[in-house]
Every structure is written in C-alpha cells, then in structure tokens.
Amino acid sequence: MIKIQNVTKEYGSITVVDHLNLEISHGEFFGLLGPNGAGKTTTVRMISTLTPLTSGSIWIDGKNMDRNLSDVKIKIGVVPQYNNLEGEMTAWENLELHGRLYNMPKAIRRKRIAELLEFTELTERAHDLAKKFSGGMKRKLMIAKNLMHNPTILLLDEPTVGLDPVARKKMWDLLKVLKTKGLTVLLTTHYIEEAEVLCDRVGLMNGGKLVELDTPEKLKAKVGECVLEYFTKGVTQSEFFATRKDALNRAASIEGNVNIRSSNLEDVFIKLTNRSVNE
Amino acid sequence: MGFVSILWQEYILFKRKFWSITIGSMIAPVLYLIAFGWGLGGGMRINGKDYINFVIPGIIALSTMTVSFNTIGNSINISRIYDKTFEQFMVAPINMFVYAAGKIFAGTLRGMYSGLLILFLTLIFKIGMQISAYFILLMILNCLVFSAMGFTAGIIINSHADMAKFSNFVITPMAFLCGTFFPLEKMPESLKVFILLLPLTHTTLGLRSNSEDLVTLAVHPLILFSNFLVFFLIGVRYCKKAE
After folding, report:
1. pLDDT band at A152 (very low <50, low <70, confident <90, very high)
2. CB pairs below 8 Å between A and B: how many?
3. What phi-psi label fits residue B20: left (phi over 0), alpha (psi between -120 and 50 degrees) or beta?
C-alpha cells in the first residue's frame, strides 16, 4: 500500500505539492489527473525517492520511503515521462542491466527478459539498439525494464505522452493486462480517456492540491451524467443534468444548435477548478 | 553486484564503440609526439636524455588525465541532465557509494587503456621507455584522481556548457603547466609553489622519477591518493543529494 501523509514540496517560494494526503490500496489502479504543473510528476518523483520531500512522509507497505532503503526500492518500478534507456545498448542489454542492478540471479534474469520481450512484442527486436526504436517501442521497453524485477508497485508518469493514437491504444491494452495481474499502479496523465479507461479511482490535482478523489463513475455523477453544450454570445456554454431526459427538456428551450453528450472527467475537472486538464 | 553491473554496462558501451574510442585515444598523443617530441623537441636533450624520452611520461600523464576526466565527467553530466539514465541508478537498490565507485573505476580503466595505447605506440616507434611497477601505479592513481574529479564535476555542474568551462579553466591549464612538456625548474618560483599543489604535477614528477629514496618515492602516490579520496568523498556526498 502507498500512503502519502501531508506531503509538501517547495522549490524556494513555489509550492509544487501542497499538503497532499492519499492512500492507494494493494492491486489498485490509481490515476492522478491534472494539467501540466499540477504536481503529478513531483508526486511520483517523491514516491520513487528521486525528489526529496520538503515535509510530510511517504509509506510503502508500512515502511517510510527513503533513498537508502533497498528493500523498499526493490518493490517499486518507476516509468518516467521520458525514455531513460541506454540508446547505445540493445533492448536485451537494457533489461539485462536492470536485472543486474536489482540483483536478480542469472537464470531468473534471462527467463524474465524473454517473458517481458514477448509480453511487449519486442522479441524480434531484442538485439537492436534502443536508440533505433520508435517512440511506442521505447515506451514498451521502458515498461518491460521496470517490470523486470517483479515490482509490486508500478509508478507510471504520463506513459502515453507523445504517442500516436494507435500506439496509445496498444499501450492501454498492455496496461490493462498489468491491471489483471494484481499490480498496484499509480498513473499520472492528462489524457481524460486514459484515466477513465484504466483507473479504478482517480485523484484530480490542481495547483499541487488534490481537489477531488473517487471512482471515475462517481466523479462524473457528481457533476451530472449528461452535458448540454450550446454556443451563445461567442462562448460555448455547458450545463449539466442528472439524466438525458432533463438535458433534452432544457435543449428544447434553446435556439440554435445544441450538443448533448455524456459527461467525462474533463467536465468534472473544469467544474471544480475552472481550468482544463489540457492546459 | 551493483559495482559489477556498472562495470558490465561500461564494458558493453566500450565494446560497442571500441574503434572510435581506440582511435580517438591515440590521435592527441600521436599529435603531441609529432609536434613536441620530434618537431619542436627534435635534437633537444633534457637531463642527459633525448627530449622524446622526457616528454612521453608527460604525454601519458596528460592523456590519462583527460580521458579519465572526460569519460566520466561527460557521461555522468549527460546521464544526469540530458538522457536521464542516471535516474535508473537512483531508483535502483544500489548505494550511491557503490555507484560512484563503479563509475570512477570504469573511468580509471578507460584512462589506463589510453595510457597503455601510448606505451604501445612507444614500442612501435622504438622509443626506449623503462616501465616499472611504480610507473604503472602512478598511472593508475592519476586515472583514479581525474576519474573521481570528473565524477564530482559531472554530479555538481548543471550544464554541459559549464562542464566545458570547467575543463577550460582546470584541466587545460594543468595539461600544460604541470611539467608535462617542460621541466618545472623553468617555471617562475612563485608559480612553481602553486603548480606543486596540483595533482598532475605529482604524476609527471613521479613518472620521471629516478630516485631510490623511499620517502621521495612515496610522496607522489600519497598526494595522488589523498586527492582521489577527497574528490571521491565529495562526489559521493553530492551524489546522495542529487535530484
């Protein structure tokens, strides 16, 4: 379990994460959703010990997270936003290095590399240099690398950023498989659909604070199941309704074109913060 | 295991770039040999020896210094700031002390490789050089000092441009002032005191030493080792705090 207690991160006078409290259960697929600068990446970096906390504490399975605690670090896999692969090493060598750093015995290492290359559909490219891979393949290799040591917790920071829609959908399939394997996953994203498709619970972050936290369905229910949109006085207006019937009734009284659709997490975010997730 | 893993990674990268590393390591020393050894120094004698025999230990000191420093300094700096591969070691269950030791040892091996290439060149060009265990020890210590200095600079300095500046202000002056191409006796007394504080001076003096006095022989390795220890400990300290 990941427990974040009253965590704050400040850079000089700027507060990036502000008294964050959060608990993520075993086997949960948890999403942190928010625009750039919301504090999502800093939160992931603090959990993985890459960034020290200004105050508060982070607990992993009851142990206080510390950069020098090997037995806690071994439980975590960290996939950052960028692909920090050794470009001059092959896919196989990148995985081998990771296995060695995590002290895996040779036989287990080799077996795991074969499994993960197959899982990420990279077996045929195993001996190609990582720098020659496409963006999608690099992301897959990053995930394979961080699953090498069989972590119980996987931190995914914007795993599909920069991928084309096809590669993104493939990555979601891969992540859905991980979901079935009982791994605890913390995913940060600013893609609404990604959070809705993958996450059991979603935390909405803005300005370093957690503004709302619930399942995607309950979050959407809080603003209303349906959204009515219409253009008037140079601005698109949105109104939320509990049912489609209510939205249709209201639409009848509006002149011009209207659009009725199901609400999504972006609507929740905008309603709560007056900001878009994609800012 | 972490130490061996780092060396394994460096070995893979070395193997992959073997020819560019090997040829790259030989270009500067060969140019120095041609320009200073045979060109400017042709027919010149120092301490009763041909200048070429005088300058080769200087070139070895200089080359092992630059290769050790640049290999690790640039690699750490790039991996920390640009390609972020440094982070995979930070999140891995290895101690930063072990990480520093592995990287510095790898830099030392690269420095030694360039030094041994120069010795190989002296065999090809039939330049009579006497190589003792003491000579090799000083080469190793020189590589350790500058590899540790490179590691520390790579960890502390926050841009590649500033790494180049550091090299310009620290490494380049040492390369020319620490008795590499001419004897220290030719330097002004006031400057000599400062130059004797620099580690490369002790490498060049030691590599050319003919003394059998144990105390004199021990001074240079001890000073080099102290320098290594200081840079290593500073590097580890900053590495533990790196973000």
Report:
1. very high
2. 67
3. alpha
